[in-house]
């Protein structure tokens, strides 16, 4: 069957702006007015991908996460709920850059021929969007592509990114032994709340957690989730939702949200938190979360992705031991070079767990985490989750506890496997996980912070002529090009006590990022500035 004519006609409605597009770590992301042709073409690719995957549903998420309100973006979700397989990213880029409608049809047909895709096979897509004003128009572009390729589709309207990932996995595993949950938004809340109640059985939450939702889709979705959760008095947790205004588009990610808090190292100015109050911030599509509080000396204290990773790894390790499973389950942690060196040291020396360092980008961390029985991965910015291998799940499910305390630990561990989103980092799921752990340990955020002390660090963004000349090795920790740059960085780093620094080209911005750590704040700042001088 040929879709040539239908694609040609539909493509005419979505002319391509003169610009080069690239499917990067976060799909395509840019000013929303540049996106109609991109979203249309991503729709064509989603149809092809579904056909290639025997008619399994592919997800399309329209969001630009923590970017400003005028931006938008689009990314694809593979049948099992993970990100688009890397070998297909160049196809997305090729589609987006086809110069004419005819060339686009040619690319589309070329892909079908080279990958032996049967265009008569069924194609299915499910999609959703965040709260941006440009979302509905971009959805129309997507639907034009799905119609032109005779693709069945379901519009889930407003969802967080992880909710769409959840739905993709549920849709494709329905009726199989790998069934993940009910194929509905309600199913998502039910799965999380059931697991949460089970995990809280032997724990008691303290105080209230205030959650800043970046004025994004996380706001209404967290409000909905709260309806399914018991309050603190009922054995659950008290959640206060703030920054949940999705009706004024300009407020999205403005002066609030996880990215603001992490990069500015301060609470949202609107925060009314008193010293010691437990606070968290989500990003615009609710796949990232960071915690923070104001200490007794009025200092802002951040508990970022590294802290969540160490907290989760320690807790799961303890549960493994208490349930008598320690020898059967290997736990590992996956980080990027941006993880604070103190967290790496804590995981290795105190938790005694193996660590793997991968390049920046969740897809790398996710794949690396799959190699452990229990793989904990978080980027420092708060995006991450914990993956349980099929073998780990089976081991946990079939384990016979030898005592009531083993049985309790096993029940909590089992609940954790259900509570933690297995498809992708999920701020709502991570929020509940952290709340469960703090409740079990009877910890406030200051107790959590006291587990280790971060090394002073500094991240700077350097504008360069051409960032493509920066090539790296060793999980982006060393530059291979430009020549001699790494030798100069090494020489500098050697002059600082506890110095560590690296430079790499950003995958999402036209810049090079320099990260530095040293024994003192002043030295970290100084080292970062000097390394920035080398790459400039
Ligand atoms: P780049 O621009 O490649 O550094 C940034 C973040 C990543 C990741 C991606 C995707 C830092 C230093 N980098 O990547 O962690 O989240 O965006 O959103 O925070
Ligand atoms: Zn996000």
TrEMBL record:
Residues of the Phosphoacetylglucosamine mutase AMG1 domain: 200-290, 304-443
Domain Alpha-D-phosphohexomutase C-terminal: 479-532
UniProt GO BP: carbohydrate metabolic process; cell wall organization; UDP-N-acetylglucosamine biosynthetic process
SUPFAM superfamilies associated with the record: Phosphoglucomutase, C-terminal domain, Phosphoglucomutase, first 3 domains
Keyword Protein biosynthesis included in the entry's annotation: no
Cross-referenced Gene3D superfamilies: Alpha-D-Glucose-1,6-Bisphosphate, subunit A, domain 3, Alpha-D-phosphohexomutase, C-terminal domain
Coiled coil feature spans: none
Domain Alpha-D-phosphohexomutase alpha/beta/alpha: 56-85, 97-175
Cofactor: Mg(2+)
Catalytic activity: N-acetyl-alpha-D-glucosamine 1-phosphate = N-acetyl-D-glucosamine 6-phosphate
EC number, as in UniProt: 5.4.2.3
Annotated active site: 65 (phosphoserine intermediate)
Domain of life (superkingdom): Eukaryota
Alphabetic keyword roster: Carbohydrate metabolism, Cell wall biogenesis/degradation, Isomerase, Magnesium, Metal-binding, Phosphoprotein
MF terms (GO), sorted A to Z: magnesium ion binding; phosphoacetylglucosamine mutase activity
Pathway named in the protein's UniProt entry: Nucleotide-sugar biosynthesis; UDP-N-acetyl-alpha-D-glucosamine biosynthesis; N-acetyl-alpha-D-glucosamine 1-phosphate from alpha-D-glucosamine 6-phosphate (route I): step 2/2
Function: Catalyzes the conversion of GlcNAc-6-P into GlcNAc-1-P during the synthesis of uridine diphosphate/UDP-GlcNAc, which is a biosynthetic precursor of chitin and also supplies the amino sugars for N-linked oligosaccharides of glycoproteins.
Alphabetized PANTHER family for the sequence: PHOSPHOACETYLGLUCOSAMINE MUTASE
Protein name: Phosphoacetylglucosamine mutase
Source organism of the structure: Viridothelium virens (Speckled blister lichen)
